[in-house]
Write a structure and sequence with these properties.
The structure holds 2 protein chains of 2 kinds. By secondary structure, chain A is an all-beta fold. Chain A has no helices and 12 strands. In chain A, the strands form 3 sheets. In chain A, strands 2, 5, 6, 10, 11 and 12 form a 6-stranded mixed beta sheet that branches. Chain B starts with a strand and ends with a strand. Classes of the chains: A mainly beta, B mainly beta.
Chain lengths: 117, 113
């Protein structure tokens, strides 16, 4: 079974600074997908960024980027120029390639990020 | 676009009562799933479905039933509520293709007293 570990339960950073959230995972699969989801106080789950394991290049989405280290089974999220709206719980998630679809995501326990004005 | 709609948003049950959490999606997604979110434990998969008429168990299925009679709807039934089922429940849906996004509903906060 796959496991996802987020070792930082809480983090805080000043507005406009850069912050990195850590995620490690364990799997025997060679091909898989990794995700970061954001959950603001509204409770809505929002996809931030995704990475396909067979792609060498790290994914980026505007101020969000990942550092994917396949051999180390590490998948960290970097948020640049942090904004107050980035305050949320962040979940790292793992999915093996479907035989089917996205129905079986494995989540980490989350990191609560607070951006300080 | 409604996306994934869950009802109710909040519910309080007494131990032993039964109820159904509703989930509907209007995106013609084949795949739907239910998760529960508990403090310090992230989201855990309860049940999932890869199409109408097909369901399977996830990581924590005990005490819950599901059915998928239509593509749009995927209700979650609590047979006899227990305090351990106090949680926030999320329904999610996606297309049956790799590298597609899972869309989540707004969640249902359930308290069993």
């Amino acid at each position: 079974a796959q496991t996802v570990t987020q070792s930082q339960p809480e983090m805080s950073v000043q507005e406009a600074e850069t912050v990195t959230l850590s995620c490690t995972y364990d799997t025997s699969e060679n091909n898989y997908y990794l995700f970061w989801y954001k959950q603001p106080p509204s409770r809505q789950m929002i996809l931030v960024i995704r990475q396909e394991a067979y792609k060498q290049q790290n994914a980026t989405e505007n101020r969000f980027s990942v550092n994917f280290q396949k051999a180390a089974k590490s998948f960290s999220l970097k948020i640049s120029d942090s904004q107050l709206g980035d305050t949320a719980m962040y979940f790292c998630a793992f999915m093996t390639p479907p035989n089917f679809g996205n129905e079986k995501l494995t989540f980490g326990t989350g990191t609560r990020l607070t951006i300080i004005p | 676009n409604a996306g994934v709609t869950q009802t109710p948003k909040f519910q309080v049950l007494k131990t032993g009562q039964s109820m159904t959490l509703q989930c509907a999606q209007d995106m013609n997604h084949e795949y739907m799933s239910w998760y529960r979110q508990d403090p310090g434990m992230g989201l855990r998969l309860i049940h999932y479905s890869v199409g109408a008429g097909i369901t399977d168990q996830g990581e924590v299925p005990n005490g819950y039933n599901v059915s998928r009679s239509t593509t749009e709807d995927f209700p979650l039934r609590l047979l006899s509520a227990a305090p351990s089922q106090t949680s926030v429940y999320f329904c999610a849906s996606s297309y049956g293709r790799p590298n597609t996004e899972a869309f989540f509903g707004q969640g249902t906060r359930l308290t069993v007293v």
